[in-house]
Amino acid sequence: MARDYYDILGVNRDASDAELKKAYRRLAMKYHPDRNSDDVDAMDRFKEAKQAYEILKDPRKRAMYDQYGHDAVSGQTGAQGGAGFADFSDVFGDIFGDIFGGARGGSRRSSRGADMRIAIELDLKEAVQGVTRELNIPSMVSCKRCNGSGSKSGRMETCGTCGGAGQVRMQQGIFSVMQTCPSCRGSGQRVSDPCGDCNGQGRVQEQRTLSVKIPAGVDTGDRIRLAGEGQAGAQGSAAGDLYVEVQVRPHKLFERHGDDLHCEIPIPFTTAALGGEIKVPTLDGSVMLKVQAETQSGKVFKLRGKGVRSVRSHHTGDLMCHVVVETPVKLSSKQKQLLREFEETFDHGTTDHNPRSRGFMDSVREFFERVTG
């Protein structure tokens, strides 16, 4: 009967991904074939640990295994139900890459320039409608005198450390691994006569002015990638990318929720009672909104198409106007008297004129009936 994968790795069934990886590393180092070339049992333990980790590190396979056991994942761990060694470097790349710097294989790598990140603040209208901004960016740029080569004459010589391979072999105990050459950084060549402006690096520090077009509809947290506008690479290698991170300042009137805009619209209680038209602000200017008679605080009027055009789906949201009925203040004696006379016209034996009060009192009565019933 097949052993439980959690028992093989020596972890609990609720072990985290980090705990699984740590347990697997320990067993892989202990039972690795290079350290136990004549031990058949160690070879089997190594295969067993690898097979267990292959299943448990995958969330989907792990869930199937937890529910149905070995039958659910049989045939998913390589030929003959085991984990062969053809894909050894792929499986252990993350483990031995952590130890030896991640250099594997014989490919030559150049020193690509670093990516850059810059934050940009926009007001809501700029974010909704789009804007072009001029950004001053201090960064490493390609040296003009040597065209980024780092060489005064443009001549390069084969790196003496790696012989032009771009990598060197490093011995770490029983393991022999390939690392990027520290002298040429993987290019396989060295500058024979360094440029005086850049000291052979092929790049210099410079302040750049970059015109960046911000598309309409962006929101806080969105990033705009400008390929090749990051730091220049050493000795003519590719430049990194520039990421512009958007931050939208709060607006005095509007709040954005997805593609919709929301705002509060205060109206006089007379307009709320009798109806009428009020002027409503939008990002494009003011519009007139018709308010029906007997409008209550909290009612929401929707102005279609007055929201934000999504930068992704191109769907345009709406403007949601939340009505707040204002109680008049600083009344004159005459106004107070008129309100008292107006109040006396109501029949206080009913709640016909106060729909919310009627609903509230009904809810209160039902509550006490349930409590005392």
Topology readout:
Blueprint lengths: L4 H5 L7 H15 L8 H17 L2 H10 L1 H4 L14 H4 L1 H8 L15 E7 L1 H6 L1 E12 L13 E3 L8 E6 L2 E6 L8 E3 L11 E12 L8 E4 L15 E7 L6 E3 L2 E9 H6 L1 E7 L2 E7 L8 E4 L15 E8 L6 H12 L10 H18 L1
Parallel strand pairs: 1-9, 11-15
Antiparallel strand pairs: 2-7, 3-6, 4-5, 8-9, 10-11, 12-13, 14-15
Helix pairs in contact: 2-3
Provide structural commentary:
The protein is an alpha+beta fold and 373 residues long. It folds into four domains: 5-91, Helix Hairpins (Orthogonal Bundle), CATH 1.10.287.110; 116-247, Chaperone, DNAj Protein, Chain A (Ribbon), CATH 2.10.230.10; 255-329, HSP40/DNAj peptide-binding domain; 335-372, no CATH class. The protein has eleven helices and 15 strands. The strands form six sheets. Strands 10-11-15-14 form a four-stranded mixed sheet. Helix 2 runs antiparallel to helix 3 (40-56). The longest helix has 18 residues, at 355-372. The model is unreliable at 77-109 (pLDDT under 50).
Query: What is the number of beta strands?
Result: 15
* Low-confidence spans: 77-109
Instruction: Provide the spatial order of strands within the biggest beta sheet.
Output: 10-11-15-14
**Secondary structure tally, helices:** 11
In the CATH scheme, the class of the largest domain would be Mainly Beta
Q: What is the N-to-C succession of helices and strands?
A: HHHHHHHEHEEEEEEEEEEHEEEEHH
Distance between the termini: 64 Å
Based on the structure given, which CATH architecture of the largest domain is correct?
Answer: Ribbon
The CATH topology of the largest domain turns out to be Chaperone, DNAj Protein, Chain A
Principal-axes geometry comes out as: flat
What is the structural class? alpha+beta
Q: Provide the helix percentage.
A: 25-40%
User: Number of folding domains?
Assistant: 4
Q: What percentage of the residues does DSSP assign to strands (E)?
A: 25-35%
* Largest sheet data: 4 strands, mixed
Overall mean pLDDT stands at 80
Question: Over the alpha carbons, how many angstroms does the gyration radius reach?
Answer: 36 Å
